[in-house]
Design goal:
Layout (H helix, E strand, L loop, with lengths): L7 H51 L8 E3 L11 E3 H9 L33 H7 L3 E3 L1 H4 E4 L3 E4 L12 E5 L6 E3 L6 E3 L44 E6 L4 E5 L10 H4 L9
Antiparallel strand pairs: 1-2, 3-6, 4-5, 6-9, 7-8, 9-10
Length: 271
């Protein structure tokens, strides 16, 4: 009997075929994985919008505050600031819902004195970070009223003209803002694309001290802290009527010359 075995040439051919297939399939797998994470993030922002809709029902159609501030709680892990994710938590029942699967960056300004990171439950400011640095920012400039120094309150949603065309939550980042570090001990610029609780309209809104979009991309201030993790030109967003979709960042700046015109997808005027 004679035994047959693979020759060296045959083995090399098989290896080459496997390498070619891997080169073809790995990018496909990577795209599929990214698409799955995008679907998850869109589901998250929709559920956050749904939670807000339920909140409206429970609070006489008044929008959620950006945060509640109670100085008597300044020594707690939320530093006295109960941001909107914590206010909506009774409806979502899940902190992870406020985080996009791709929002994994950290920044030294979010570390506590022991070096615990943004995502570490042992961070002594864990509740503050959960609220102040979610993946989805809130259109607080028009969906809240502000009384200095630390008071935000909701507005009547029924007083707005077009809830279906009023952005509420969208992918956001704290990048490029100069802020005090956790506990107020350090002041510096955030360099990483960590999530942020606020999105800001393109035209200046003096009532909240906002000067409008300024600078150029990739400076996040050039687009009001909107920050697409899956596509730099668009963001996943939910609207005041509860629906969610991807929207081009450029489409959130309307034409015109006045605040009412340019910010019409923020202020409730619609198109």
């Amino acid at each position: 009997m004679t035994r047959r075995a693979f020759t060296l040439i045959e083995l090399l051919v098989v290896i080459a075929i496997i390498a070619i297939l891997a080169a073809i399939l790995f990018p496909v797998f990577a795209q599929a994985k990214k698409a799955a994470k995008q679907t998850q993030s869109l589901s998250n922002v929709k559920q956050v919008g749904t939670a807000h809709s339920i909140y409206l029902t429970d609070f006489d159609d008044v929008t959620v505050p950006l945060y509640w501030y109670d100085p008597s709680l300044s020594a707690t892990s939320n530093q006295g600031f109960t941001y909107y994710p914590m206010l909506l938590l009774p409806y979502t029942k899940n902190r992870q819902m406020f985080l996009c699967p791709l929002d994994t960056n950290d920044d030294p300004l979010l570390h506590d004195s022991q070096g615990h990171s943004r995502f570490d439950p042992a961070n002594q400011y864990h509740d503050y970070i959960t609220g102040a640095n979610p993946s989805y920012g809130y259109n607080y400039a028009y969906l809240n009223t502000y009384q200095p120094p630390f008071t935000y309150s909701g507005v009547s949603a029924t007083a707005l003209g077009s809830t279906a065309e009023t952005i509420t939550f969208a992918e956001a980042t704290m990048k490029d803002l100069v802020v005090p570090g956790i506990g107020g001990t350090t002041v510096g610029a955030v360099t990483s694309s960590v999530g942020y609780s606020r999105i800001r309209p393109p035209f200046a809104v003096p009532a909240v001290g906002w000067a409008g979009w300024s600078g150029t991309y990739p400076n996040a201030k050039s687009q009001g802290q909107l920050w697409g993790l899956f596509d730099k030109d668009s963001v996943l967003a939910s609207w005041l009527d509860g629906h969610a979709k991807r929207v081009a960042i450029s489409k959130l700046k309307a034409t015109g010359t006045t605040e009412a015109e340019v910010n019409q997808y923020w202020n409730g005027n619609g198109s």
